[in-house]
Each structure stands twice: as structure tokens, then as C-alpha cells.
Amino acid sequence: MKILGRVSIFPPIPARINRLYELAYNLWWSWHPEAQELYRERDADLWEHVGHNPVRFLSSIAPERLEQAAEDPVYLRRYDAVMAAFDAYMRAEDTWFRRTYPQYANRTIAYFSAEFGLHEAIPIYSGGLGVLAGDHCKEASDLGLPFVGVGFLYPQGYFTQQITREGQQEAIYEKLHFAEVPATAAVDPKGNEILIAVDLPGRRVYAKVWKVQVGRISLYLLDTDVEPNSQADRVLAARLYGGDVEMRIAQEIVLGIGGVRALRALGADPLVWHMNEGHSAFIGLERARELVAERGLSFAEAREVVAANSVFTTHTPVAAGNDAFAFDLIDRYFSDYWPQLGLSREEFLNLARQDQPWGPSFSMTALALRFSGRSNGVSRLHGAVSRRMWAFLWPGVDVDEVPITHITNGVHTATWLAPELAALYDHYLDANWRERLDDPAVWEGVMDIPDAELWAAHQERKRQLFAYARNRLRRQRIRLGEGPQQLDEVDTMFDPNALTIGFARRFATYKRATLLFRDLDRLRALVNHPERPVQFIFAGKAHPADEPGKALITQVYQISQEEEFRGRIVFLEGYDMEMARYLVSGCDVWLNTPIRPHEASGTSGQKAALNGVPNCSILDGWWAEGFNGRNGWSIGEGREYYDAATRDAADSRSLYSVLEQQVVPAYYARDEQGLPRVWISIMKEAIRSIAPSFNMSRMVKEYTNRFYVPAVQQAERFDEEGYALARALAAWKQHAIQNWPQLEVYASGPRDRQLGLGEPFEVEARVRLGALRPEDIAVEVVYGRDDQGTVVDIASVEMTRERLDGDGTALYRARVVPPTNGLLVYGVRVRPTHPALPNRYAMGLVRWA
Q1: Is residue 3 very low, low, confident or very high in pLDDT (cuts 50, 70, 90)?
Q2: Measured between alpha carbons, how far is 640 from 6 in angstroms, rounded to an integer?
Q3: Can you say whether the dihedral through the CA atoms of 382, 384, 385, 391 is positive or negative?
Q4: Domain co-membership, 179 together with 318
Q5: Buried/exposed code over 240-272 (b: 16+ C-beta within 10 A; e: otherwise)
Q6: Contact by Cβ (8 Å): 137, 219
Q7: b/e map of 130-140 (b: 16 or more CB within 10 Å)?
Q8: Using CA of residue 537, residue 538, residue 540, residue 541, what is the dihedral sign?
Q9: Are residues 518 and 536 in the same domain?
Q10: Does position 4 have pLDDT exceeding 80, yes or no?
Q11: Residue 321 φ/ψ, nearest 5 degrees
């Protein structure tokens, strides 16, 4: 039949338990297992069949099962307890944000992301970026932030992965029926459903706005599969990261420009705008257009207002991974847009110009950086990599002082902590540990957990992982048409006593899923050792257009089918958040082998450590900060190599040595009670050292304290008196830029002198200001240690103005006290300064003596 539409019919829910429907539409249930249990226990098979989606569950369950529940006193006690906890959570006034920043309790923070990984029931995420965004939303809810999310509700979501008999990945797209997901149509203040529009070449594209409630916060998702769009535009946002470059730029216009318009239609006026990766960077242009059209600001003034309260997080340490569009494409999509900003074509293109070997391009990351007052990478190492990558935007500024900082990623504890471990923490940690997740003192209590109890909890998680994996493999083999012998083989797979190592993540080439297979002889010896066998579980998806990534999956699968590795190396198809929860809590070791420094952060290892699963990883991303020598194992050296072959050979040798000499012996060393005491001590140290530092509570508080609240304060200053500060800052910037070439600086100080530690030296500078004023500049002595030609440990001392001569020359002096011994080098620089600049190097202008 030709289907016109779908209607989901719900059975009558008995009045005594009718709030099951309300609960289904708030994803609070997704991080509260006791809430999910209210559905699952009524029909466990149906719960699995509907993918743990309570909305689909309620529309499919037999009415008599609900009627039985309403008459079951045991069920009703659990139901009442869950609803009481839900109500207490939703009505709470005493949240962290309200306690800490009561004056900003109603100042909205808008968070834009191309994907949100909230739960497997809503498959609008592809990997780490989306899961991080979902965790960010959940923690914003837990902490009580005035927070809204903006993204896409992709009707076909991200693909479901199937593996063929030859080991090839197949992408299966299934229509997401909105009648069966916990999403409702968003409405404006008058109660009307919201439909926004953006202009694309030769046409206008519309998007409906859907609302997903995530605890206390709302997530607004755009959908272009609506009338009166053409068929091509109806599928514009059908798939996450689908289509060609034309579809990509159209999606990002809908997300950035359309997302701003959606919030306006909702009546929202955010005071902070956070771009999670560059996909939504067109936000800055749309906000500037509004200010030019509606408030009469010049573009330069509008840009200052926008940057004052914009936050940008970059996740991509590889140049090719950052979206950039050819100028001819920008011409077609924005030729009617830049006149609305009062800009010429060249001025518009230069907003995001990035020169590539093949020519200039319009970089979304450059655009986001230029429209943000605060920018960060997602680990300490990634912050350093990002400063190097984007230093060209701040010519004259030392790489280490490029204004891109870092806030290391974390994970949402309640989402990723296994119930068995949570029960242990409830018993042995402080009673309020869930409210003090980022307090290291709380996690010291892990050391009080009896070894036998921690080991038993882990063994239970391992048992559940194996049962889950066998079920997935059985379904896969049935789909492939395997016979009874192959199905019976599944029942004997996964030795519960064998060391089990997990590797599950996106299959991109830089993650090197096949590094383990560089020496098959050593691998055979590992997996087939008669007393100390090792088994590996692999899982992960490659982007459908990533042929090299898909080839890695094929290689892993084909090796897993060889007789010597069969049953010891397994690839599980269909990686998603559900599978991830089993893997990060049920494996014995979490393996990660990226090319350093290409892993921006990574969070799967943080989830594993939270559950007592130690990491064995390259010192990249968050692990470069998290590894302390006692909480897991490091692979390779914390350095880079001159070519790929040398690097891979060195890292592979290190991986085998670590497994053979450290990991395997520690796991199999048992005492008279059969407990691996050394191993358990590593598990405890992993929890104690990683759980408080790499959780989402710490991360969102850090964003709030360092970025969100300062951005709110800056926005308030810029809003005052008709944007007077923005107008003044824009005028001052223009004046500084025009007169900077005339500024001259000369300095004198010791050239080659020997000093004792702590003995000061004097530096003098004369600055010819030209048309600039002394208050327009800062003069600094910059010094650092000379480490074989590289200046490290850079610091600066601001110089004091002694006098201003009649000819416009100013005299500055500073007294420098060397903080350490060794060869010190120094210089003198001048930079423009203004109280309203978001950071010291926002101008990108520096003049050295």
C-alpha cells in the first residue's frame, strides 16, 4: 500500500499508573535504571524488541499486562518510589547552579550540536561527539543549568550496521517514526507548532521543530521532512552526515541559521551560545545579521556583540576533519546574505579564509573561532594541537599563547556506571557521593571496598557481557543463514576465566584498530596460551563513505574467522550505546591505539575506568592526563615519529611487550583465595584517580565557571546603553589596526650575563606610539627556558610606564626574577589592550622590539 501517515495507538493505561506515559516522554529514565525497570519487568521480551524505547513499549504492550501491574502491590511500591524521585528531581530548587549563580538562574545557555547521543532509542548520533553532547545535556539537567540544546531529529537517524559473511559493513537505514519516539512538536508562546525557514539557492527550505525533554532541560531538533519542501529538501536532514558537500553546507545552514530562528520562534533569548564543533558556526552570521537589521549596528559592532557571549569547542585535531567549503560554493549559497551584513564578497570570504595547498577555502572552524570570545579543545594535548593548527589566525602571537584553551572531556556518571558497581559505591562511599562526583575525597572510599566484592561485581558484569555478546552473535549467524553447528559454536565462545580485552569505537584509520595484527605470531601465542589465554572483542562502525575505515572492519572480521583465532577474536556488529554499556563494564581491559596526537580526547576509556576496567592506551587525548603509572598501562612513548611505518612498528612492539610482560602476568597472578590482588589494586586505582577528574559534573562546572558565566557577564555589559561598549570596542579596534604599522619599539637589557638563581635583571623599552595612546597598549617582557633551540615554559611580566615624552615616546621598565636555573631567553613585545577584549590576544597584533 502507499502509506499516507502513521498513527501510534496506545492501550488504556490504568489511572493508578498512568504517569508511565508522562515518564516515557522525559529521558530522565535513560539514566535511571529503576525507571526503565518499570517498563522492562512488565514484558522483558517486548522491551528488547522495541530497543528500550518506552514510548514504543507502551503502544505495543498487551493491555492486561498494564492492568496486572496496577493491581500488583510490589510493582506499585516501586512505581511510587520512581515517580516520587522523578518529581523531586524535576521540582528541585536547590541545584548546584542556583546555589552558585542564583542571579543567572533564568539566563538561557544555548548549546548547538550536529548530533546528540542520549540513548539507543533515539539513534541520532554516530559516535563520541554525539555521546558527549548527550552527556553534556544530562549533566546540565542534573546541575540545574538554564540550558537548551539545538540539533537535528534525523528521520533516518544514523545507520544500523550489519556485517556480511565476507566481513563487509552494510549500512541499513530505518525510518524513525516520530509517533514512536519520546519527541513532541515544539510550540511557540501562543501554542502554535513551529515551522522555520532558511533560504538556499533558488528556494526556501522549511524545518519543523521537535522537542525532547531531557530531565529539566529541553532539546530542540529540526526536521526538514515537511510540507511544502521538495522531495530533495525533505531528505536534506534525513541522515546524519549523509550526502555530498552540497548537502553538508545546506545542513549546516539549517542548523546554524535555522537553529537561531527556531530559538527566536520559541521566544528564547539566550545569553550564551555554545557551538559544539564547527557544524553550527553559521550561528555567528545569523546573530550578526539580526543585530545589523534590527538594532542598526554595523557589522564590526555586531561581531563584537556576538563574540562576547559565544563559546566554541573544537573536537578535530586533523586538518582534513574540519569542514571547509570552496569559495564558489559559498558564492552560490551566500551571495544574497553578505549584503544583509553590509559586507563585500571579499570581506565575507575573509571571515573564514583558510589557505590550502589547492587554494583558499571557507573554514567552519575558522569562522567559529573568529566569532567566539572563548574557545577550547577537549584535552590538554588537544588544546596544544589546536593552538598549532589555528595559529595562522593570530599572526605574530606565539603558538603557546594562541587563545584556544582546553577543557578535558568527561562522562555522565549515572548513564555509564553499571548497577553492580553503583551498588558497591552506595555501600562504601559517602552517602552523598552522587552529589559530589568531582570531589576526589569521595572516591578515596573505593579503597575500602573489599577485594572479593569488587571482583565479584566485575565478574557479574563480565558474565552479562558474554551473555549479551552470544545473543548478538547468534542473531547475526541466523541472519547469515548459518546451520546448527555454527549456532552451537556460539554457546562455547567467551571463556569466563580468560583475560578479555575490548576495543570498541569508530573505525577511522587514525584509531588503528588493526595495530594488534602487525605480528600475528605473537598474537597467536597470546590468544592460545594454554594457561593464560587472552580474548579480544572488537566493535565499531565506519562512516559509510569511509572505504579505508570499512576495510579495517573487514580485516578484523576475516582474522577473527581464521581457525587459530576463532572464538578468541570476535567482532560484534551493530555498535551502539547499549552495546557500549556492556563492553565498558564487562571487559577486563580497555584498549586504545590511536595515532598520537590525533585522538582529541576520547571518552570510552573514562567510562571503562569508572566501572573498574583499566585502560591500556597510547598516551593520547585524555589518557595523556589520566595515566599515573598505577591505574592502567601506557603504550609507546609520548612523542611523534618521522614516518608512519616507524611509528606503527614502534607502537606495535610496545603493545605486545606491555600485554606479554605486564597485563597478562598481573591478571593471572592469583592468591590462595583465587583473587588477583595486584589486578584489583589497579582496578581500584583506576576508579579512584579517574572517576572524580573525568566526569561530566567536573566538565560542565568548568564550562560554567570559565566560559558560560563570564560570557553572560560580558553579554550584559555589551547590552547596556544601546550596545555602547560594542560600538566603542569596534571603533577602538579599527583605530588600533589602522595605526599599528606606525608603532615602533626598541628595548635594552642584558645580552650575555651570568646571574645567580633569584637574582633579578632590568629591561628597558622605548615605544613610539604614533596615533595610539599609552592605554591602548601593553608592553611585556616575555621569557622562557632555551631547551636546545626551543623556547619552553614561556611566561611574561608586564612593564611599567615610567614617563611619556612630548614626542609620543613612552619609556617602560621591568624587573625580571628568573624562576629557574638554566639558559633563559627573553624579548620585549607590545600588544593592543582594551578592557572589553575577551582575551589578551584577541586582536592577533604583536610588535616585537
Answers
A1: low
A2: 55
A3: positive
A4: yes
A5: bbbeeeebbbbbbbbbbbbbbbbbbbbeeebbb
A6: yes
A7: bbbbbbbbbbb
A8: negative
A9: yes
A10: no
A11: -85, -5
Q: How many helices, marked H, and strands, marked E, lie in the chain?
A: 32, 29
CA angle (386, 387, 393) in 5-degree steps: 105
Residue 28 φ then ψ, to 5°: -50, -35
Nearest-angstrom CA–CA distance, 28 and 24:
9
Sheet holding 499-504, edge to edge: 569-572, 534-539, 499-504, 589-592, 615-618, 632-635
Domain count, the chain: 4
d(CA 141, CA 782): 43
What is the separation of C-alpha 349 from the centre of its chain, rounded to a whole number of angstroms?
28
Give the pLDDT confidence of 684-733 residue by residue, as tens digits. 999 999 999 999 999 999 999 999 999 999 999 998 888 999 999 999 99
Residue 6's pLDDT is 66
DSSP three-state, residue 590? strand
Query: Are residues 402 and 429 located together in one domain of the fold?
Result: no
What is the 8-class DSSP label of residue 178?
Answer: G
Cβ atoms of residues 219 and 151 within 8 Å: yes
Q: How many angstroms separate the CA atoms of 482 and 471, rounded?
A: 14
Calpha distance 582→499 (Å, rounded):
16
By CB atoms closer than 10 A (0-12, 13-18, 19+), residue 413 is buried
Query: Is residue 412 situated within a structural domain?
Result: no
User: Can you say whether the dihedral through the CA atoms of 359, 360, 366, 368 is positive or negative?
Assistant: negative
Q: How many of the other CB atoms lie within 10 Å of CB of 177?
A: 12
The helix/strand/coil state of 544 is: coil
Q: Which has the higher per-residue pLDDT, 847 or 179?
A: 847
- Most distant pair of Cα atoms in the chain: their distance: 97
Q: How many CA atoms lie within 13 A of 702 on its CB side?
A: 18
CB 136 within 8 A of CB 219: no
Contacts of 690 (CB under 8 A, 6+ apart): 606, 609, 610, 626, 631
Most confident of 231-240, 241-250, 621-630, 783-792: 621-630
Is residue 460 located within the same domain as residue 573? yes
Cα–Cα distance list, 207 to 225, 239, 306, 610 (Å): 7, 15, 24, 40
Which H, E and C letters describe 31-56, residue by residue?
HCHHHHHHHHCCCHHHHHHCCCCHHH
Cell of 695: 566526569
Has residue 261 been placed in a domain? yes
Q: Is 609's pLDDT higher than 80?
A: yes
Q: Residue 50 corresponds to which amino acid?
A: V
Measured N-to-C along each axis, helices 451-479 and 419-428 cross at an angle, to the nearest 10 degrees, of 170
Nearest by Cα to 416 from 610, 595, 185, 652: 610
Give the 3-state DSSP-derived string for 322-391, with helices as H, strands as E and coil as C. CCEEEHHHHHHHHCCCHHHHCCCHHHHHHCCEEEECCEEEEEHHHHHHHCCCEEEECCHHHHHHHHHHCH
Structural domain including 834 reads 732-848
> What backbone torsions phi and psi does residue 826 show, to the nearest 5 degrees?
-150, 165
3-state secondary structure of 770: coil
| 264: CATH | 3.40.50.2000
Segment of 238-252, 582-596, 709-723 carrying the highest mean pLDDT? 582-596
Domain stop point among 57, 91, 125: 91
**How confident is the model at residue 782, as a pLDDT?**
92
DSSP helix/strand/coil, 700: helix
What's the CA gap between 693 and 411, in Å, rounded? Answer: 10
- Based on the fold, state whether residues 269 and 200 are members of the same structural domain: yes
Do 497 and 637 reside in the same domain of the chain? yes
- Grid cell locating 200: 538556499
Q: Give the three cell numbers for residue 836.
A: 572589553
